[in-house]
Amino acid sequence: xxxxxxxxxxxxxxxxxxxxxxxxxxxxxxxxxxxxxxxxxxxxxxxxxxxxxxxxxxxxxxxxxxxxxxxxxxxxxxx
Length: 79
What we know:
Layout (H helix, E strand, L loop, with lengths): L11 H15 L11 H8 L3 H7 L1 H15 L8
Helix pairs in contact: 1-2, 3-4
């Protein structure tokens, strides 16, 4: 999976969350157990979970959408 760019992000919390998403999707977690869920994303990003649920719901939704796509057995190029 291609990494998610964060070149235009100025907020350090958003940058940490996006970096954590990239690590989790690449299978190279540094702080979490690597599971693709919001709690582990928060741990991986070293932020409180409320940052994802209340402050940056767009990143939460993006993460959940990509996670669902990865879990889908109907992804292009599979099977």
